[in-house]
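ok trying again, last paste got cut off:
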Amino acid sequence: MKIQNISKYVMLAVMAVSLVVFALFFGMWGDEKYGEYDAPTFTGLLLVLMYVLTFLTTGLIIWAVVKSIASSKGTDATATTGVPSTKISIFTWTLFVASLVVGYVLGIGESDFTAADGTVTPANMVTVTDMFMCSIYILFLVAVVAVGVAMSGILVKTASK
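nice, full thing came through this time. structure:
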């Protein structure tokens, strides 16, 4: 079976399981109690799904990096494929660090957060949370733009000239 077919079937399976879990989560409301608040019945199932997908994705990323390093050992990927992987890696890490810095700067000066149950989150942790949230927004926007550019074929047309 080709890798494209395996990838397609895995994506469809993950989407189907996610849709079922989200339908259960949003469709059944109010049977579980968290303190004095009602919560959807399948909150625990949704959290388990998110943990499983996170750990599975992390494991697959580590496996892919190790396999890629082992298979390309001693060869110049740019000469073989024409893709400047070193420049892409440097840009990616620079963008990641820059997004964290921007998020940190935007989160400076936050005050302590007091939840409804009286739990107090210190200001430094609120700043860290803001930093990661801003980083997620920035990286999401860059990913959307990158997908749009890749789907438009602009880079393929300019590379073939």
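cool. DSSP finds six helices and four strands in the chain. The first strand starts at residue 29 and ends at 34.
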